[in-house]
Amino acid sequence: MWTRIPSSALRLTGADRVDFVQGQMTNDLRGAPTPGMVACAFLNVRGQMEFFARAYKREGYVYLHLDAGQAEGLAARLRRYIIFDQVELQDLTAELRTVHVWGGQSVPGWNAGGSDAQVFELGSAAVLAGRVNRTGEAGLDLHYLARAEAEVLAALGGEELPLAMLDLARVRAGIPDVTRDGFVGTLPQEVGLDVGGPLPAISYRKGCYVGQEIMARLEARGNARYHLARLSGEALPDHAEVTREGRVVGQAGLCAGGLSLARLRKELVPGDTVEVGGVPATVQPLVPLPQDVRPADA
Asked: Model pTM?
């Protein structure tokens, strides 16, 4: 099974490419193997997320895979910080396509015991693959040239599932999507991107980057007031305020199958009742639910 992922992409080249992006992102790309891949966020000076990406370290370039519509904004941000660095940016959004293969260990050419990022051929087309958990089990993101899409998909075979199915699976698994859930502008620790969270994207041991002081303060004091939770209810609206007794206590992400991941005040516990955009909902423990998602469930 596989799903098309709406995407945008940047490629960084030049002698300083790794050091430059290392000084902008929350995770440790320099410490990754080549090829390798890490999830990361790009923060503002208040520690709030502006962008989320998966950074692929390759011989000769760094590839940043982002959600749709994000590459232009991130490129503009990065260019503001290029002074004497030998770095060039290229927006590859129009040239590349991405699919996620659910549980993707059977993809021809993929070495299940190898690096989290690998390059191999499907048919005669080259693909860059990354081991990514989008559904509750590790699958593969496959990145390839748009002009080779028909050949890649023919060689891949299997059944195409819609993006709504993947959203349902990830919400059941407790895995946030920063862009699709509308969590841009929040602290990474508030939505499960810290160490031990469902989508770790922070290294507290790497060098300086924009927003690092706030991250270090949160690590030392452990005082983020919000965390990632899951809500259940009928016909919950997307991206709505979460309230309790008239007081705002969080924000909900995308609703899928009567469930929504939410940035929620920590004092709320499983079983508490809240409202999502005025619709009643119940706080659930953030534990994976059985992954029996099939097209009939959409």
From this structure: 0.93
